[in-house]
Structure formats: structure tokens, C-alpha cells
Write a structure and sequence with these properties.
Structural class: mainly alpha
Number of helices: 3
Order of helices and strands: HHH
Strand content: under 5%
Distance between the termini: 59 Å
Number of strands: 0
Keywords: Membrane, Transmembrane, Transmembrane helix
Radius of gyration: 17 Å
Shape: elongated
Oligomer: single chain
Length: 64
């Protein structure tokens, strides 16, 4: 007898949307710092990606 297993992995390519949203925040911070020629912040964003993603969210809200 064959058993068919169906797994529901959620949306956003199976892993949830948290990673995609965090990546979008990080990209926002990196691109904005590169455009504004803020090299120290750009290095900070590249060396510490989780904090760069947080800065990206703060940029979206107008707090950074």
C-alpha cells in the first residue's frame, strides 16, 4: 500500500516570509548607504547583516 504524504510548508517559497522580509530590509540598508556614499554604515551593514536588516526596517519607518 502506498502512502502519500502532503506537507504544508507555508507561503513565500516554503520557508515562510520572515527570511524574505529580512533580506528586503538588509538590501534597503545596503542600497541606501551606497547611494548616499555612507561608507562606514555600508561596512557595518555588510559585516553585521542582522543589524543591517534592522536598520532597513527602521529606514522604512523613517526612524533611521
Amino acid at each position: 500500500m502506498a502512502v502519500i504524504e502532503i506537507r504544508d510548508r507555508g507561503g513565500c517559497f516554503g520557508g515562510g516570509c520572515v527570511g524574505i522580509v529580512a533580506l528586503a530590509g538588509w538590501i534597503t540598508a545596503v542600497v541606501r548607504d551606497a547611494m548616499m556614499v555612507k561608507w562606514l554604515w555600508l561596512i557595518f551593514d555588510l559585516l553585521l547583516p542582522p543589524l543591517g536588516a534592522l536598520r532597513g526596517f527602521l529606514m522604512w519607518l523613517g526612524w533611521a
